[in-house]
Design goal:
Number of domains: 1
Distance between the termini: 24 Å
Number of helices: 10
Order of helices and strands: EEEHEEHEHHHHEHEHEEHH
Bound molecules: adenosine-5'-triphosphate
Strand order of the largest sheet: 6-7-8-3-9-10
CATH class: Alpha Beta
Largest sheet: 6 strands, mixed
Structural class: alpha/beta
Mean pLDDT: 91
Number of strands: 10
CATH topology: Rossmann fold
Helix content: 25-40%
Length: 270
């Protein structure tokens, strides 16, 4: 966890003291699956070059919220939203806003590693190729840099043309992170990226996520409160589709402002 003093972001109903730029500004966000409301009036800023953890019991809306940030949630046809999400000062719900651009800038890593049935090299080169990069030297450079940034290069540099399915689960997840980095996103959304991994792979991915904070803004959904406490700068606690508390991670775990947060982090429910 960062030791640098950070501004305290108080509960959503109180005035915020923000000294740093935010990458996302979420206001009055509501979301429905058909007639069932899953998110209620969310207000939240997500800050540049920080790790923001989203915690809360199963079904509280963590993944829904995460997937709203790159509008992937709209792949479910019955989804309706209201409110605004500003990404670098533009409302992503604006009909003129390009969802393709948004998803290029806001990458996503899923719970289960999902490499393509291709070589390690082709997995990483996939996004850049789609964006028109064809030159082999340029692709080689991107692949090497992305694999290095994903802390995987040393383990795979001699087998780049082997199938990605031959990697371990933890290596596959770092490959998926490399694939995401190859399109140079601004923000990385991670939906329980270590829940399918063993403890050693989990530790490697946690270290990697902390290092990525220097270049990227990261939002990570996790069931694991220790993980949130270990790696994040700020933590948001969701319950029944509401954002109960969002503050510095140290503060949320040591001195939560809301009784419901305290009950959750002390294991009284969830
Ligand atoms: N595709 C969907 N269609 C209808 N309802 C959905 C859909 N996806 C999620 N929901 C509902 O939205 C609510 C929030 O679900 P969501 O998956 O966001 O919660 P979560 O906190 O991420 O849960 P978990 O920790 O179990 O993954 C739940 O009531 C869930 O049943």
């Amino acid at each position: 966890m960062s030791t640098i003093a950070k501004p305290i972001v108080k509960k959503q109903s109180e005035e915020k003291t923000i000294e740093k730029d935010s990458v996302f500004g979420v206001s009055n966000l509501n979301l429905w699956y058909g007639t069932d409301q899953a998110l209620y009036d969310i207000h939240m800023d997500i800050y540049k070059n920080e790790i923001t953890a989203i915690i809360g019991p199963s079904g509280c809306g963590k993944s829904t919220f995460l997937k709203t940030l790159n509008r992937m949630v709209e792949m479910v046809p019955i989804v309706k939203t209201s409110g605004t999400i500003k990404y670098n000062d533009e409302n992503i719900f604006d009909p003129k806003y390009s969802v393709e651009d948004l998803r290029t800038r806001v990458g996503m890593v899923f719970q289960k590693p999902n490499p393509f049935p291709k070589s390690i090299y082709d997995n990483v080169a996939y996004g850049p190729r789609i964006h028109g990069i064809k030159n082999k030297k340029d692709l080689d450079t991107i692949v090497e840099k992305s694999l290095k940034d994903a802390a995987l290069w040393d383990e795979v540099k001699d087998r780049l043309h082997e199938n990605a399915y031959g990697l371990s689960g933890g290596q596959q997840q770092r490959l998926c992170i490399a694939r995401c980095l190859a399109i140079e996103p601004d923000v990385i959304l991670m939906d329980e990226p270590t829940s399918a991994l063993d403890p050693i792979s989990t530790m490697k991915v946690e270290e990697l996520v902390q290092n990525l904070r220097e270049k990227y803004s990261i939002v990570i959904v996790t069931h694991n409160m220790q993980q949130a406490a270990r790696i994040s700068d700020k933590t948001a606690f969701f319950l029944n589709g509401e954002l109960v508390e969002f503050t510095e991670t140290d503060q949320l775990f040591s001195n939560p402002a809301d009784k419901r947060t305290e009950d959750y982090i002390t294991g009284r429910f969830g």
